[in-house]
Amino acid sequence: MTWWPGSLTGKKSHPDKCLVDHLEGVAALAKRLAQTHGVLDKADIEKLFDMSLTHDLAKARDKWQRYLEGKGEGTPHSESSSFFTLDLTHDVMAAELVRCHHGSLKNIEDVKSFWVNDDFKLCDIVSKIKEILPEWEPSLNDATWEKINNDLLFEFKTDENFWLRYRALLSYFIAADRMDALGVSGFDPTPLRFKQPSFDQRNDLDKWRQEVRVECLDNAKCRGEPGVYTLTLPTGTGKTTIGLEIAHMWAKKHGYQSIIYALPFISITEQNAEVARRLLGEDAVQEDHSMIKRGGDDDTPSPLKRMEALFRYWHLPVVITTMAHLWEVLYGDRVNSTINFHQLGKSVVILDEPQSIQAEHWAGLGKTLHLVSKKFKTAFILMTATQPHIAESATEIAPCACQKPISNRYHCKILREELSLGKLPDVLNHHLPLKEPSGLIVANTRREALKIHKIMCEMQEKQQISRGPVLFLSTWMTPAHRRRTLKKLRDLEKEDHPRFLVSTQVVEAGVDLDFHWVARDEGPLDSVIQVAGRCNRHGKRNVGMVLVVRLKNDRGKRFSRMVYDSILLQAMEEVTSEISEFEERQIGDVVGKYYERVSGSKKGSGLWDDIVKGKWATLPPLYAKERPALVTLVVEAEDSNVGELVDFLIKEEWNLKNIEEKKSFLREIQQHAVEIPEKLLLKCREKSSSILSSKNPLRQINNSDMWFLSKEAVSILYDPVTGFTPPEEEDDDINGCFV
Prior knowledge:
By secondary structure, the chain is an alpha/beta fold. The protein has four domains: 6-181, Hypothetical protein af1432 (Orthogonal Bundle), CATH 1.10.3210; 212-293 and 312-403, P-loop containing nucleotide triphosphate hydrolases (Rossmann fold), CATH 3.40.50.300; 410-564, Rossmann fold, CATH 3.40.50; 630-736, no CATH class. Helix content is 42%, strand content 14%. It contains 26 helices and 22 strands. Strand 1 and strand 2 form a beta hairpin. It starts with 11 loop residues before the first strand and ends in a 15-residue tail after the last strand.
């Protein structure tokens, strides 16, 4: 095969890169990645090498070369390049991965329809190859073409191993391609270090936490081979620290190359990333989510930093990410979603609060984790206080004695009567010690939370609760606003000052706050227990009180029904009809009964069947419920420069050369933004139109789905305590919850 120097002399793949250099660079990087992670066998590594060498050969066309010189429009190159891959490998799936390398994966039936049909002939492939590279001597002939067709039509079988193999091939290939395009020529892994954490020993609970930590670490010493593990510990035991310590121990002992930590919500990734940095070093931890501020003071980021910014590529040994992104890495159909899939190889992967994943996915996810652990040599840890039935035959790390708290920090009472919001003050007053200086109420929808916040303020005016700030948390507050509120709450808690909080489910997982009493609108049992963990969290007081109420709107519809799966609520009702009150030390028994009912009632999402059958383009998303059309509202606060950022975004001419700078600006702007239903936009514009201003107080940004709310209009549509104020009274639907 002699296709360079020949026709490729002087040809470019990118404006600043020779085509030959790019193809050879991608092939070398892909091979090195594959050898580093050890997922592929020797034959597949050679196949990966051939895919990489051929993936952009169609860029040799004169039309593409003129496009790079700015003299015409681009032309598709992936499909024509895939013909070279097929000719070199005689592997349709390898060719298919090249064909889709700037798009998305296809279902296997669609793959067959493209490669085997009456209009697609061998002579067409040979003709296209010769047109692009006359020197290329095709190896395909009538006999080999017939065999490829027959194999694809009659012998082609898909299963879970087939899926894993080709997703891994695609992951290495896509990562290497994007790396070389950005100038990554090599990579040296950052070593994992560990700083011994310090622990307070001020009371019996602190001593118990330390005992739990020591026992879990001792138990983990004789484990850690590739497999699926659970770490089931009560709330407030320091699971984040214990989980990271175990992962680090296993990495040292068993040679795992990275630690990947997935959380259910963006709002807590920052907090857990700080814990990881303290334990494992600032330069070893990569915080990865859609709202992360990247870049910093470095005007000339390294190529790997650019990979991180553009493709969310994991290049540091410790990654703190979201469950939603990990789901995309595992199952997403966009090829860029697979870019980190190979990183799961030889890693410890922690899934924090895995019960947040919809129950219909549990069986399929569990089978996936077992498959990946076996083939990729990965250790998965499912870490929570309320362990769901996800992975059969998983190994528990925590000793039985550690799975219950040392004492009852709270007592939980569940009321079964449906209540209107108007009756809430009397019910709270009857069942809770409202004169205590701190309390938390968690609602199921944002509008419900706003109404409860108003009720709490009125109760304070009537001296029904202690004097102190009544604060608020929901995703209708900008990330910057939420961070300020959490800091204020922690400062008040540190000084033991009065404080009250009304929140949506944003406060459930991983938010380290402590209150004298807690109330929650009904929800799945695991959500109730997560919130209960904020009551007397540090065990400094006598037994706290947790109250679960069943609230309904003015139309008689329960708020919980607008948010949660009916099967989860039914399981909750069945369990609490038998056990309407329980102590914290009884949680294990109550949760066991709850998950038995959930598992017995829930139908699977078809995730595993779709993997096996090759329906890779239509694997179910993590959150199956449809969301309404949303727009982004950028809020100009008095103390922010977001207005200047928006003006620059509008005025600047953006192109491929400064696209990274644009993304950096957008990430900064998102710190001051909220998402609202598009249907509210017209009412917002009507409400803000009364404001006299030289500029429209609510205006669209560059014909995008982003809208800028100026300082003049903030007082009308954005409250300094509760955030976005919807312009009309309207009941929440399914999308009113925090997700």
